[in-house]
Design brief:
There is one protein chain. The chain has four domains: 212 residues, P-loop containing nucleotide triphosphate hydrolases (Rossmann fold); 114 residues, no CATH class; 244 residues, P-loop containing nucleotide triphosphate hydrolases (Rossmann fold, 3-Layer(aba) Sandwich); 136 residues, PCRA, domain 4 (Orthogonal Bundle). Helices cover 53% and strands 10% of the residues. Helix 9 packs parallel to helix 30 and helix 16 crosses helix 32. The protein has a six-stranded parallel sheet, with helices on both faces. The structure holds adenosine-5'-triphosphate. Adenosine-5'-triphosphate (ATP) binds next to helix 3. It catalyses: Couples ATP hydrolysis with the unwinding of duplex DNA by translocating in the 3'-5' direction; ATP + H2O = ADP + phosphate + H(+). It is an enzyme of class 5 (isomerase).
């Protein structure tokens, strides 16, 4: 019996290995030690990793006490990977408890909570900070810092060109307290903490910064300010018994600093396989390296397999992840002959891969992102004809890659809709997606697609399903938007509450974006100006005033629970958002039956908004709903990562957004033409990116330039991710006339296309003309 199983198993193992393409087999053949796999889009990273994991588990006879640990970035990716490994193990008749799949935070939390004495983390006494609580905490730490550092605060207020005028002082104070300093704190705390740098170390680093000494630039000693904010934050966390996401990693590392605990975990973990490795921060990598080390021999090679694509790193401008770390790991591995480049991909038609490759090469050569090339130089290659993937490198639809320059954005959507409709009519099983750079573009498209009269194309009657992912997400904002409105109604004279409300109006496109500090600094004068006050003059400000006073009137005219639907109408909610608001109102009314007051409603809403919970990886959180056949999905380029469709539309590819420019909002320019959070981030990264010797920390202006380069590089990588989602048709366009910013879609300008695209198209045209007919 046992022999029969062993023989079956051997056959199945061979079959699994043979189901892989050449690059993937390096994962199947892994016997131990470190391995870096740098893969191109569509190479089949997850497929290769799942097979490699199953083979390693059987080969090394792993079990519940000695497991393979697989780590990936998101919960949905973790669920997918787990399902794939389970499928292989079932076919091998091998126990499923021989491996575990975690997200990085899930892994850290498991280690920390199983060893509460060492980690200092017990979920009975500590609470995980939710994003909403985090915002409030940051505001408090800013207020405390201001109170303790009046001189520095004063210097920031004075910035440049300050004449001491009172209204201007109030405006600057509001901008500093509610925008600049909270953003500085958020960026720096996350950046420093996820690199294992405590506040004191940041303060030390601040001392080593080269100061900017020019006549018209004051550098405000930004890292010292940042270190002060960080220190306040840490004090507040411990006073309130809270932990944040970075603390989870730190506390897991604290556990592993203990010899006995470390040995326990290292014995339990046979090896670590990490997917999406380009997205990890230094501290996260340290955690994985510690687990992958031999329990008895610290000098033995790490059993660590890291798979990723540095060219798809698209989180580096809003998280501390940066492809530099994975690139460094790959370079080190290359020196030891332990780097595998998986460059064959079966996802797309040849011409789509050629377009992506051309874009990559052009961008690297253009120098647009400074001296550091945005991309690792690797080209996507087609797979050989005998590849195991069915229908690999499928035939293109039409030319496979198209680029249009319609006169307007409306015309762009019309063209897109006509094309989508024709494709669906011809082949209703195609999957299609429209990828946008920001939600507002998605909303603009969705509205037009649901308005056949204006558009002149009726997509809806054809059976093609339109799925706007952003619209589903907007629903989840309903409770917090209602909370903001009720808090304003409760205390309309608070500048902070008024400003939060105005922000919601801008986000919901009820008012144009403008300097909200100007409106919010003196609420009473703004809403009910007396004879001596000067009321707002711009149409945008007057519209804001009408909406605010309308809400205040409603408080006196409506019973509390009718405030919610009224607020929904004020925000211009659509049918489904209104239905969500109604449901929320019903829940509030039920929960507060005994105490039917505004105060009680606010309290209940705060609880609802604050109760985002941690969920296990196990939930069936799959992405399949985004890629259904016969469906046209609208989603952001960021969300599209890891997914693919037969047809991908990229409608608004303008230079203004890709690569775009880091810019400073008008109301913040009193400090100078740079952004403090971005400068601080670049300064910290100069330190954390240095591999050995301490690196010099750039002065403010150099750091600002580096931040701009980072943003440019990332936008091009995002375009690369978007282009490589297409299997058979990549449809791109950039209208001649388009909104200067999408917060105001009616304000049109003549905009040039993303500079890489003309090159890509002329290259493709040239190759086509050279092909034999
Ligand atoms: N060896 C293989 N045999 C059959 N199908 C495969 C194989 N390798 C990959 N595929 C298929 O190719 C597609 C892409 O694979 P996968 O999602 O693993 O790629 P990826 O490298 O993670 O892509 P990206 O990084 O661009 O998101 C999937 O549909 C997968 O089923």
């Amino acid at each position: 019996m046992a022999e029969a199983i062993a023989a079956d198993r051997a056959t199945t193992l061979t079959e699994i290995r043979e189901s892989l393409r050449a690059g993937q087999r390096s994962l199947a053949d892994w016997q131990g030690g470190p391995l870096a796999v740098s893969a191109v889009p569509g190479a089949g990273k997850s497929t290769g990793m799942a097979a490699g994991a199953a083979i390693a588990i059987v080969r090394h006879e792993l079990n519940a006490k000695r497991q393979l640990v697989l780590v990936t970035f998101t919960r949905s990716a973790a669920a997918n990977l787990k399902a794939k490994v389970q499928r292989h193990l079932r076919s091998l008749q091998y126990p499923l408890n021989s491996f575990v799949v975690y997200t990085l935070h899930g892994l850290a939390l498991t280690i920390a909570t199983r060893n509460p004495d060492l980690s200092g983390i017990s979920l009975d006494t500590l609470t995980l900070l939710t994003p909403t609580q985090n915002n409030r905490l940051i505001r408090t730490c800013v207020e405390r810092w201001l109170a303790e550092n009046p001189d520095r605060y004063q210097r920031l207020i004075e910035g440049r060109q300050f004449d001491g005028e009172e209204t201007e002082r109030l405006r600057r104070q509001s901008t500093l307290r509610t925008e600049i300093l909270p953003s500085l704190a958020t960026t720096v705390i996350h950046e420093a903490k996820s690199s294992g740098m405590p506040p004191a170390e940041l303060a030390q680093l601040a001392a080593s910064v080269t100061r900017t000494l020019t006549d018209d630039v004051e550098d405000y000693d930004v890292l010292t300010v940042a270190a002060g904010l960080y220190e306040q934050y840490q004090t507040l966390l411990s006073q309130r018994h809270l932990i944040d996401y970075d603390d989870m990693i730190l506390s897991a590392l604290r556990v592993l600093a203990d010899d006995e605990a470390r040995r326990f975990w290292q014995n339990r973990v046979f090896a670590v396989f990490e997917d999406e490795a380009q997205d990890s921060s230094p501290l996260q990598t340290q955690l994985l390296e510690t687990l992958a080390r031999d329990a008895e021999d610290a000098t033995a090679p790490l059993n660590l397999v890291r798979v990723g694509d540095p060219n798809q790193a698209i989180n580096s401008t809003f998280t501390p992840a940066d492809p530099v770390f994975f690139n460094q790991f790959c370079d080190r591995a290359q020196h030891q002959n332990r780097l595998v480049v998986m460059d064959q991909a079966g996802r797309s038609s040849g011409v789509i891969m050629a377009a992506a490759n051309t874009m990559l090469t052009w961008v690297n050569q253009s120098g647009l992102a400074g001296t550091v090339a945005p991309f690792r130089s690797q080209a996507i290659q087609p797979v050989p004809v005998d590849d195991p993937q069915p229908d690999a490198n499928p035939a293109p639809i039409g030319g496979g890659v198209e680029f249009y320059r319609p006169p307007t954005v409306m015309e762009t959507v019309r063209l897109l809709a006509q094309r989508s409709l024709a494709l669906h009519t011809e082949n209703p099983t195609l999957s299609q997606a429209i990828l946008v750079r920001e939600h507002r573009q998605g909303r603009f498209i969705n509205q037009l697609l649901h308005d056949p009269e204006t558009l002149g194309v009726d997509l809806l009657s054809t059976g093609l399903q339109i799925y706007d992912v952003g619209e589903q997400e907007r629903q989840t904002h309903v409770p917090s938007e209602m909370l903001t409105i009720l808090q304003f109604i409760e205390r309309p004279h608070s500048p902070d509450r008024l400003k939060s409300l105005l922000r919601v109006f801008v986000d919901r496109q009820r008012i144009a974006s403008q300097d909200l500090n100007l409106l919010a600094k003196q609420p009473e004068q703004f809403m009910y100006p007396g004879p001596l006050d000067s009321p707002p003059t711009t149409e945008a400000a007057q519209q804001a005033r009408r909406l605010c006073t309308g809400l205040l009137r409603s408080r006196f005219e409506l019973p509390p629970y009718h405030l919610i639907p009224f607020a929904g109408l004020t925000l211009g909610y659509n049918q489904s958002e209104l239905a969500t608001a109604d449901k929320l109102a019903a829940r509030l009314s039920q929960q507060n039956r005994e105490d039917n007051t505004l105060r009680a409603m606010i309290q209940t809403l705060q609880e609802i908004v604050g109760s985002e919970r941690f969920e296990a990886v196990d939930t069936e959180d799959r992405d399949d709903r985004y890629t259904r056949r016969g469906q046209l999905t609208i989603l952001t380029m960021h969300k599209a990562k890891g997914l693919d469709w037969d047809v991908v539309f990229l409608p608004f590819l303008h230079e203004r957004t890709i690569p775009g420019n880091l810019w400073v909002p008008q109301q913040q320019t009193f400090l100078g033409d740079f952004s403090l959070p971005e400068v601080a981030r670049a300064q910290i990264r100069a330190h954390t990116h240095a591999e050995s010797t301490p690196a010099p920390i750039p002065d403010l202006l150099t750091a600002w330039q580096q931040a701009k380069n980072l943003k440019t590089a990332e936008e091009f990588r995002l375009l690369y991710v978007a282009m490589t989602r297409a299997k058979r048709l990549l449809w791109m366009s950039a209208a001649h006339s388009a909104p200067f910013t999408w917060s105001n879609p009616d304000n049109l300008s003549d905009l040039p296309p993303c500079p890489a695209l003309p090159t890509v198209m002329s290259y493709l045209a040239e190759t086509r003309s050279r092909q034999p007919r």
